[in-house]
Structure formats: structure tokens, C-alpha cells
Design goal:
187 residues, mainly beta, Jelly Rolls
């Protein structure tokens, strides 16, 4: 990714947070990724680590319409994905390669419901879905912009993200075409 793209993504996120009265803590740890695919506008995400402790993690994320977080799972991490502002779609599978319809018992807003594997779960602001270790998932806003929260067990972005697309890398290489607004978590 070009540094200018990263700077613009950070500025866009900061402006949207401010316009929606979200105050970040001092010195948050920023992460901007195109998942190494070179197409931030379609496969991209801005993440801010608010807390990263041995027992738990909290993140705030920002995405625009048409930005998809690609299909992946975590071996160890259990997480709640929360729509904070906007409208967010989340899709879950136990086995993404299984073409047969499978019924999943999913926790949405704290209550268990049955859905078909691969069905879209649409979350309005304030709603959440719980994603368990080993469960494939993807998410994307269907509003113009979206603030997404994540509360999870301990987070290990280097070793606990498994993408269906083997070309994906969690942290992008950066082309320095202008000075950095701030240093990213991966730098």
C-alpha cells in the first residue's frame, strides 16, 4: 500500500469517528490493511487496538461501503463483532468449502438462533454477533461508512488469522510516497 493511501484512510476514519462522537484513547495503535491484495477500496480495513491484554482485546474498526474483510477464521480467538455506527453484514460458516446447507447455532445479541451456513446476518448499530474459534467469517458494511467494534479473547494477528485466499497477508508492504501521519502497529 502507498503511504498516501494509509494516511487518507486514517484521516477518513478520524473524521468519521469525530463526526459520530467517538473519542479514541490517547496513543491508540493503528493498523491499516489491504490484506496484501493491493485493492484497499474493495478489500481493506482500518483497525485501532484499544486494549491488547493477555486475557482480552478490544478493537475499533472503520470500513466504507464495498470494503470487504476477506473470509478467515481464528484457531484460538473468540470474538464479538459489534456494529457501532452504520449497518454491517456478517457471514458465518463452520466449513466454508461445504456446499451443502448446514444449520448453525449462532449467538446474536446474546441469544442463540439457528441460521443457514453462509446466510448474511445484518447488524444495525448496537447489535452484535459472537464468532467462535474455527468459525469462518467475513464482514462488510452496507451503509456508506461503518464503525465496527470487536471484543475478544487474546489477539494474535501474526499467528491466528487463517484466510481462505492464500495470497492474503495480514500486514501490507508500504510504499513510502509521502511522510507518515503516524506509525502503524506493524511498523
Amino acid at each position: 500500500m502507498k503511504r498516501s493511501q494509509i494516511n487518507k484512510a486514517i484521516t477518513d476514519a478520524q473524521n468519521f469517528f469525530e463526526n459520530n462522537n467517538w473519542t479514541l484513547p490517547p496513543n491508540p495503535k493503528w493498523d491499516v490493511t489491504d490484506f496484501g491484495l493491493g485493492s484497499f477500496d474493495s478489500k481493506g480495513l482500518v483497525l485501532i487496538n484499544l486494549a491488547s491484554e493477555a486475557e482480552y482485546c478490544e478493537k475499533l474498526m472503520y470500513a466504507k461501503l464495498n470494503q470487504i474483510t476477506p473470509e478467515h477464521y481464528h484457531k484460538n480467538k473468540k470474538e464479538d463483532i459489534i456494529c457501532r455506527v452504520g449497518v454491517l453484514t456478517v457471514v458465518l460458516w463452520n466449513d466454508i468449502t461445504n456446499t451443502e446447507t448446514e444449520v448453525l447455532k449462532v449467538q446474536i445479541n446474546g441469544e442463540f438462533v439457528n441460521i443457514n451456513s453462509g446466510d448474511e446476518i445484518v447488524l444495525q448499530a448496537g447489535e452484535r454477533v459472537t464468532v467462535y474459534p474455527g468459525q469462518w467469517h467475513t464482514f462488510f458494511p452496507i451503509s456508506t461508512e461503518c464503525i465496527i467494534g470487536e471484543v475478544s479473547t487474546a489477539n494474535d494477528d501474526l499467528n491466528d488469522n487463517f484466510f481462505i485466499d492464500t495470497e492474503i497477508g495480514r500486514y501490507p508492504e508500504i510504499e513510502e510516497d509521502e511522510p507518515a501521519l503516524l506509525r502503524l502497529l506493524s511498523e
